[in-house]
Every structure is written in structure tokens, then in C-alpha cells.
Amino acid sequence: MKRVVIIGSGLGGLSCGLILSRSGYDVTVLEQGVQPGGCLQCFSRQGVKFETGMHFIGSADDGQVLGRLLRYLGVMDDITLSRLNPMGYDVISLQGQRYCIANGREPFIETLAKDFPHERDGLNRYFDLVEQVAQASSLHSLRVADSDASPLNTEYQLRSMNDVLEEVIADPLLRDVLVGSLPLYAAERNKTPFSTHAFITDFYNQSAFRVIGGSDKIATSLVRSIGNHGGKVLCRKQVTHIDCDDTKAVGVITADETYYPADIVIAGIHPARLVELCSSPLLRPAYRRRVQTLPETCGGFSVYLRFKARTVPYMNHNFYGYHQPTPWDCERYTMAEWPKGYLYMHFCSEEHQQWAEGGVILSYMQWDEVARWQGTRVGHRGEDYEQMKCERAERLIDAVSCDFPALRDGIAGYETSTPLTYRDYTGTEGGSMYGIAKDINLGPAARVHHRTKIPNLLLTGQNINSHGILGVLVGTVVTCSELLTSERIFNEIIKANNE
What we know:
It is built from 16 helices and 20 strands. By secondary structure, it is of the alpha/beta class.
């Protein structure tokens, strides 16, 4: 029985741990925080629960890609989903004008064609292209696990979102509506590949849900299943060093000086953290420099709202508000301009929910704004930091109140987080929302492979394939295929969904 030590208990680490533990490996997952889950974590304040990262999911109906993966992992038996409004799971507001994004080809096209009747042909071309690019990815369509290099996929990995949309859609306002959800992946003009946009659009267009009671239920399910197969998930175990001999990794050391011998080490952490933990010359200087200088997605500022009882009607969709003409370039701002845009969502605590108990507002925040507090601990950053957060929260609430005038009257209180909070809880570089940024100008150099030059040291998580629940789980399949073969994993997925 080979010993596998996994660093980090985010979705990548836990899903790898489950697949390998039930395949006969002796798995130990080490988590530095007080609870497992990474971006699946939730927290509660005064009886109201909040999600920190996984606010909603897509493609979870029977037969759809995420539904198949969650069923394979045994998660679907442990969670209950609440469907977002199929006729408008996303609402994009540009300078006060609202546009609904509907699930399914015909509703999607017909809903937008009401506002853009002259672009019906363009909407058909756009939908066709999104579907073709998503299906060309064998990984995202779960056909095979070892090839993602179709000519179509390669082309749209090297072309920017805005470049492709300008070819397909003539109306500039419709182009802006179609990229209205770009905060989900921190897209940037002339940088983010169209393939990233296509994967995410296709993912949510098929179906969209919230996890009732919070996404931490996914983490709880995975931890329990790992334990049922003889594995362990240990919290408060910060890895401080990856021990290697001349040819391979042989174990890890934690802050409490415990040594965990390993035949295989899987790092579900940011690659920059990995090179800090591993001093082996097998990781060459060029690799270390590249990993440490890769561009990161922008950070975020969050306001977690507690509502007065039976005051705020539950909002069964996501709301993207922009008080400027376009969703682009919200990450570039002056203090006078901030916030240029925001994403506003409610937490789902029960089936058929009528009144919201809590919600979250998200907007961009650059790391430079909090860098001067980076040597401090959570809860001990000083009065000036708290004052900064309070001022930002009030400005963000004011911005949302322009679209929801009754919002302030329903707020009982709020909590906040910054990129510094995110870095401390997830270990991501610079508190970035989604880790390493996809950039067509860097090409393959912007990607980090799941293999390293240390043959038994592998990577998993959002920086390896893509962020988000589907991107991470696809990365898990790729990583675990190194040990189990892709054919075995895909046969197991098929079997789990036929039972």
C-alpha cells in the first residue's frame, strides 16, 4: 500500500484524496487551517452562514458534466441543490438597464433577442461557438483524460475573449452583456482566452444551482468518504518542508515537527508555496523563477451581509451591477472610481426559500491596497485596517443600493474580507481570487503542469487546469491519472453514473 501525503484540503486535495484512498492508497491530507475545504469553507456570524468561495455551481443535472463527477465522488448523496431561475440565473445590469441570461439554447437566444432582435443570427453563431469550444475539450466533456489539444481548442486558447466576440457579435452593447459575468474568472481585455469564457459560459448555461446550507457540505462529504476508505484528513498541520533524496520526495515535515513519510506527495497549494517548501535541486532555478513571477488574477473585497428577519426577499439569481458602460477594466480603478462594478448574491439556507438571511457583495481589490498589513494576523491588523474596510464596505453597499434602494433598511450588520484575508485562509499568491491568470500573451508559459521534475511530486488545484469546481475536478482527474490511468478513472465515472 503506497503512502500518499496531500498538502492542502481544498477541493483538489480532498478529491484526489478520495479517489486514491478508495483505490487502495494510504492517504493523509494535511491542512494548515482549523477546518478543511479551502474555498469550500463557510463561516457563521450571529446565526447567519456565509460562503467564502463556492457560491453557486453549474451543469449539475443528471447526465451533465459536474453532476457526473459529483456522483462519481459520492457527493450527490450528501447535498441538496436549489436551482437558480432558469429564465435568468444571471442578471447583468449596465447603467441601470437589466439583461437576463437564461439556461438552455433556445431560452438563452430568445431572451436576449428581445433586447437585440437585430442580433439573432449573431446570438446563434455565438452559442454554436461556445458549445463547439467546450465540447472540443475532451477533459471538460469527460470523453478521455489525456488529450485537450484539438485544433479548435488550441486556437481559442490563443485568442482573447474580446477579439473573438468582435468577430461574432456586431453590437458592442450585446458584447458587453455577454461578458457581464467576467468577475467569475477575473477576465481581462486582450489577455483572457476565449476558451476560458466558453468553458464557464457553457458550464452555467446548462444548469445553475446553489448548494442548500452551504458548499462546505461538499467538503464534509469528501472528508467523511476519505475516512471511510481508511484515509485521514488532519487540520492544524502546516507543512513546512518537503523532504527529498537525490531522486524523489520521501516525506513532509509539519510545523509541530511531525514527519510524514511518503511514496507520493501531491501539493494542492499554490505553486509559489510549493517551491518555498521544497529546497531540492531537482526543481530547477528556471522553474522556480517562472512559478514565482507568473501573473495572478486580481484580488477581491467582500461584504457579508446579515439581514433582518423577513425583510429582504430571497433573490434566486446572481446580480452583476455596473455603473459604467462596460464590464471591462473594473480591476483598473482609482480610489475615486471604486467600485466600478460588483457581484451581489444571496445564501440559500433552505428549500423553497422566501426570505434571505444573508448575502454577499464582491468587487475587485488590488493587493497593493493591503500590502502594508501583510505581516499581521487575522483579527490583529490594527484600527487603520478596520477603518479602511469599513469605508470600503459602506461605499460598496451604497453602490448596490443604487440598484436595490431598499437594501440598507434590511441590513442588520456585516462582515468584510480583503485579499489579505483570502491569502491567509487559502495560501494563494497576493490574495488573488482565482490564482494564476490565463494570458494569451504568455501562451504555454502561463500554465503550470501537474507534473514536476521530482517524479513523485505532483500538483493539483485551481492553478493546474482551471479554477472553479469543474476546473479543479478536471485537474484532479488529470493528476490521479498519473497513478491510476485515465481509462480506469473514466470507466469508474461511467459505472458510478449507470448504477
